Amino acid sequence: MNKIANTPNLLDPDYWGNTIKMSLSKFFILCVLQDEELHGYDIAKSVERRTDGCCTPREGTIYPVLKQFTEGGYVTFKSEIVSGRERKIYSVTDKGREAYQVALGEWMKITRCLQDCSCEASP
């Protein structure tokens, strides 16, 4: 952030990268849950693997998203006790599968637009 004007530095690649990755984190959390039930740590690691490290959701990102998805009915969980601690195992619901398909369609549209824009901007 630019401390003087309290506005983001749009010339900073980290600004754009972090903005994009936040949205991608939500998408990829739904994506990895399409295949299997996972607990939070494994969701984060699976997203990181699937994106070759491009998207690496952290605890401060993943658990609020999982809470939001659970409250919205997109994800459910079951609790189990491991080494005396509760661990939540998350799975996607039918509503979550539908949401993933909607998100996938929108990301595909954006991808096409980005390709068109990058072609037009090339010298």
UniProtKB/TrEMBL annotation:
Residues 29-101 form the Transcription regulator PadR N-terminal domain. Pfam families: PadR. It comes from the Bacteria. InterPro entries: Tscrpt_reg_PadR_N, WH-like_DNA-bd_sf, WH_DNA-bd_sf. Signal peptide: none annotated. Gene3D superfamilies: Winged helix-like DNA-binding domain superfamily/Winged helix DNA-binding domain. This is Transcriptional regulator YqjI. The lineage of its organism: Bacteria, Pseudomonadati, Pseudomonadota, Alphaproteobacteria, Rhodobacterales. The gene is yqjI.
